[in-house]
UniProtKB/TrEMBL annotation:
Recorded coiled-coil stretches: none
Name the UniProt record assigns to this protein: Class I SAM-dependent methyltransferase
UniProt cross-references to SUPFAM superfamilies, sorted A to Z: S-adenosyl-L-methionine-dependent methyltransferases
Record keyword Membrane present: yes
Entry-linked InterPro entries: Methyltransf_25 (IPR041698), SAM-dependent_MTases_sf (IPR029063)
Amino acid sequence: MFWSQGPSSRELAIQALSSVERGYDLLGPKFDHTPFRTPETILGATADALRPLGPFERGLDVCCGTGAGMRVLGPLCHGQVTGVDFSTGMLAQARRAHPYADWVRADVRALPFVEAFDLAVSFGALGHFLPAERLALFDGIYRSLRPGGLFAMPIAAPAPIISGWYWALLGFDVAMRVRNIVWRPPFVMYYRTHPLHAIRNDLTTAGFTVTTLPLTALGRREDDSPRCLLVLARRPSTS
């Protein structure tokens, strides 16, 4: 699963026993050589789906990590693009890879922006937030967008119970819960705490109008449903 330039088993173990922030600081220099980085196929499908919904001026990547989301924001936004994350190690890599962007270190549960962006995106970050924290995240994104602004986030369809992925993800979440009971500081990373209906409800509570688009380029399941949806949350325009 890992490239030769990626982290060793020892490095991953140290990260897993750290806090989320410290763990990603340690992983930052090698993160792009792990399977945790957002695949190019997802970035490309997201950009293709968003392109007809533009034009966009300023863009924000929430929980930007090493900056993979700039491959979406860069081509779509005519103005400045910004990434925000709380890991200095990940932001250092993002700055090297995308020097044209602005990079802000902040806790995304308290985003420091007000009506500054037309488009916000986030990739693979929701597992780092407990369900009770998710509304604060969405409230901050809402405040960060200009009236009429759009927040987009791809989400995979849940694995069927008969698949190996279902049991692998369930096992991972159980292992993380046990780890967080017996070890401090906690490392919050779960795959099964953010189903689509819960995301939709929290986005609606935050004030967004929520729709979804199938990312058909990423394939379909055996029942012909899409493997991945793009959640689109629009901040209403003011009159």
